[in-house]
Each structure stands twice: as C-alpha cells, then as structure tokens.
Specification:
Length: about 150
C-alpha cells in the first residue's frame, strides 16, 4: 500500500522536511504533496499571472483562487492530510484545509504545540490524531503502514 499524504499549514519551519526525511529513513511507502510554500510566490501568483490590482483584497483574492486549484486537487487526491498549526501566526488557511479534509472524510492528523489545544479543540475533535512533533507524525504513518 502506498499512502498519498498532503502536508498542509504552517510554512515558516522545517516540519515538512522532518516528516519527509523521517518517512524516507524508515522506508515508508508514501508520496507527499504540499501547497506552494514560498510565501511571496503564493501571495503574488494571482497578480503575476492575471494582472495587478489596486486593492490588497483583490490581489489576495486572485492569489487564493489560483492556490485553491492546487490545494483542493491535492486534498481530494490524498489518503491522509497532515495540518500543521505553527506557534507564530494565526493560520486560517490551515483551519480551512483541516475542515475541508474532514468534510471529505479524509484521514486527518493535526500537528501543533500544546499551547493551541484550546483554540483548536474543534479541529482536533475532527482529526484522527493530534501530534506534537513531526516525528510523531512519522510514527503514525509507520504504524498505519505496518
């Protein structure tokens, strides 16, 4: 069995690399996908392709629309969605991805620090597992594939 895993959420740390390298090190049969993780490229894709906007709302709307094509396709095609909520920013996009995955009946793993337990209680309730570290995510994947 090969699991298709979508790595959603926070883009400011090395958590994705730790999951990918950990899975590779254990020889797990997995394929990873993720959103565009270059913040500027993600934010500016809409105006770079479709033209400038005067108002930030419309600039952001163009970018989020284009990014959603990738994000929705990858979530739909995945077997497992891992959503990382980082400590620094409010990640509304991560919460949206978790909710979308849950609505599709995807297996869902949330990944966040204990300090966010209360704020994410509803998201965690929809998840199959809540991990604290990328290494715990790898352990979950290893168990599922064993």
């Amino acid at each position: 069995m090969i699991l298709k895993i979508y790595l959603a959420g926070e883009i400011h740390s090395d958590w994705r690399e730790r999951v990918v390298e950990g899975a590779k090190g254990k020889g797990l049969s997995v394929v990873f996908t993720n959103p565009v993780t270059d913040h500027d490229a993600s934010d500016m894709c809409g105006v770079n392709i479709l033209g400038e906007e005067e108002k930030p709302f419309w600039r952001d709307r163009k970018g989020s629309g284009l990014n959603s094509i990738r994000r929705i396709k990858m979530i739909k095609d995945s077997d497992v969605v891992v959503v990382r909520f980082g400590p620094k920013y409010k990640q509304w996009n991560a919460a949206f991805d978790a909710g979308y995955a849950a609505a599709l009946g995807k297996s869902l793993i949330t990944l966040h620090d204990e300090e966010h337990d209360h704020a994410l209680k509803e998201v965690d309730e929809a998840a199959n597992a809540t991990a604290r570290t990328p290494e715990q995510v790898v352990g979950i994947l290893e168990y599922v594939l064993s």
